[in-house]
Write a structure and sequence with these properties.
With about 325 residues, the chain is of the alpha/beta class. The chain has helices at about 15-30, 35-50, 50-60, 80-85, 90-95, 135, 155-165, 170-180, 190-195, 215-220, 245-250, 300-320; strands at about 5-10, 100, 110-115, 145, 165-170, 185, 205, 225-230, 240, 260, 280-285, 335. The strands form 3 sheets. Strands 1-2-11-8-3-6-4-5 form an 8-stranded mixed beta sheet. Strands 7-12 form a two-stranded parallel sheet. A two-stranded antiparallel sheet has the order 9-10. The two termini are about 25 Å apart.
């Protein structure tokens, strides 16, 4: 196993009050997609108390260019620094016994494209990157999440994503983030990788062979790629396989998946069916240098070459750390499709 230059650890709480606090905060943040309830309940209450005219006025103001359709997700976002850097996320990290380890230092004078794999179903490790975690590992580096457009179309969920620094994962928006010296946190496997995650599988599968848009994104701006492998995400929830549901993703861009964690909620499991602890561990590889290439000079050959180098680095990162650090068996395979 290659040595790490810096490690940030969040050991799981041992006291009962600590365990309860960790679980409560993780429950709240892991169910963020249901935060639309905090939008509907106040609106219904206002409608009943103040009358339909006031309620309708509030509804129209919300779904107007002043707020919901203000284009924030495709601009600079609506980052709330106090929330993004909140120490509350420490409890979330402790719940999953998260560890963040880097093989190389990253100078803060330039942006990076962090490419995480695998995506997983719940992608609970994404929450662990909040609360100064990234800046502890790489001082001075500021990261913005690249998120799928449907997440910004759900009231409540939209606000949470924007306040925590998420941006729409389109070219123009991410290019602008790089221009502001902001790094981008991206999951190349995206929604399709959700369907490849299964706790019962004896291998880890990445959807990467046809994912090359992020490579072109890096080439246009000359942004170094940072491969990141996340161990443990595959085991935190159980999925119910429903034939044909991938077609729903193709039609709507929304991954419709039935899954559950502890107590049949979205609270991640911390112990598997065999009684082994489930820990989430990040391995950040050394950056892959990328030279800026003019749009007209970006050829498929160049894209394929850089993509092949990225895939090689991800596989090597997995193989270097899967046993001693990741807790997997030596013969645990990594499948690329």
């Amino acid at each position: 196993m290659a040595p790490f230059v810096r490690v940030v650890e969040f050991p799981r709480s041992t006291s009962t009050p600590g365990k309860v606090a960790d679980a409560v905060l993780m429950f709240v943040f892991s169910h963020y997609i249901f935060w639309w309830v905090f939008f509907v309940v106040p609106l219904v209450a206002l409608w009943k108390v103040a009358g339909p005219y006031v309620g309708m006025t509030a509804l129209c103001l919300y779904f107007s260019p002043l707020w919901f359709f203000n284009g924030a997700s495709k601009g600079k976002g609506m980052l709330l620094s106090w929330l993004y850097n909140s120490s509350a996320f420490r409890y979330v990290n402790q719940y999953c016994n998260m560890t963040f380890a880097a093989e190389a230092e990253l100078p803060a004078d330039r942006p990076y494209l962090f490419c995480f794999a695998p995506h997983g179903i719940l992608c609970v490790h994404r929450i662990g990157l909040l609360g100064h975690t990234l800046s502890q590992l790489f001082p001075g580096v500021v990261g913005r999440f690249a998120a799928a457009s449907p997440q910004f179309m759900i009231p409540g969920c939209r606000e949470v994503c924007l306040w925590l620094g998420a941006l729409d994962a389109n070219r123009k928006t991410l290019d602008a983030a790089f221009d502001r010296n902001e790094s981008v946190l991206l999951w190349p496997g995206g929604s399709k990788e959700i369907f490849l995650t299964d706790v019962t599988e004896k291998s880890t599968t990445l959807y990467i062979n046809d994912r090359k848009g992020f490579v072109k994104l890096a080439m246009r701006k000359g942004v170094d790629l940072v491969p990141v492998f996340v161990f443990g995400e595959q085991r935190v929830v159980t999925k119910l396989a429903v034939p044909g549901w991938q077609k729903f993703l193709k039609w709507t861009k929304i991954p419709l998946v039935l899954f559950w964690g502890r107590y049949f909620t979205w609270l991640p499991r911390v112990v598997d069916d065999e009684g082994r602890d489930i820990n989430i561990k990040f391995a950040f590889g050394a950056p892959i240098p990328v030279e800026a290439v003019p749009e007209e000079a970006i050829t498929q050959e160049r894209i394929d070459a850089l993509h092949a180098e990225y895939v090689k680095q991800v596989v090597d990162l997995f193989e270097r750390h899967k046993v001693e650090y990741g807790g997997l068996k030596p013969d645990h395979p990594l499948t690329l499709i």
